[in-house]
């Protein structure tokens, strides 16, 4: 699961494959989940085990560092066994992902 959206970093590198990290911060008391957003050149690079581009969070990229979910929605997402599906739904509503495609 990922989102496709082309962005170019300050060095001219194309980043088109956006993935929510499988590791996340979970706070059951505050009912909160936060997961990092990782950007790759493309799906092939991700599949080949390449590391995410470290420039994805520079100001010109206009991309969030993380995706957050809170309240009962966070608890419901955790009950599914993989909260990332719910986090992707949050990301899709963000203006930074206007024009995305599902992958």
Describe the structure.
It is a single chain. The protein has 103 residues and is of the alpha+beta class. The chain is 21% helix and 35% strand. The chain has helices spanning 43-47, 72-79, 84-92; strands at residues 3-8, 14-27, 32-40, 66-70, 101-102. A five-stranded antiparallel β-sheet has the order 4-3-2-1-5.
Offer a few descriptive terms:
single chain; 103 residues; alpha+beta; 5-stranded antiparallel β-sheet; 3 helices; 35% strand
In brief:
The protein is an alpha+beta fold and 103 residues long. The chain is 21% helix and 35% strand. It is built from three helices and five strands.
Describe the SSE topology.
Layout (H helix, E strand, L loop, with lengths): L2 E6 L5 E14 L4 E9 L2 H5 L18 E5 L1 H8 L4 H9 L8 E2 L1
Antiparallel strand pairs: 1-2, 1-5, 2-3, 3-4
Radius of gyration: 14 Å
Secondary-structure-derived class: alpha+beta
Number of strands: 5
Number of helices: 3
Low-confidence stretches: none
Q: Percent of residues in helical segments?
A: 10-25%
Strand order of the largest sheet: 4-3-2-1-5
Instruction: Spell the H/E element sequence.
Output: EEEHEHHE
Q: Largest sheet, if any?
A: 5 strands, antiparallel
Amino-to-carboxy terminus distance? 6 Å
Shape: elongated
Query: Which percent range describes the beta-strand content?
Result: 25-35%
């Amino acid at each position: 699961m990922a989102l496709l959206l082309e962005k170019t970093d300050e060095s001219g590198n194309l980043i088109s494959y956006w993935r929510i990290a499988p590791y996340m911060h979970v706070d059951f008391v505050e009912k909160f989940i936060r997961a990092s957003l990782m950007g790759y050149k493309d799906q092939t690079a991700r599949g080949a085990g390449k590391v995410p581009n470290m420039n994805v969070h520079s100001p010109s990229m206009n991309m969030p560092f993380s995706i957050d979910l809170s309240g009962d929605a966070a608890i419901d997402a955790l009950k599914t066994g993989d909260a990332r599906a719910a986090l992707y739904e949050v990301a899709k509503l963000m203006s930074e992902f206007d024009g995305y495609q599902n992958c």
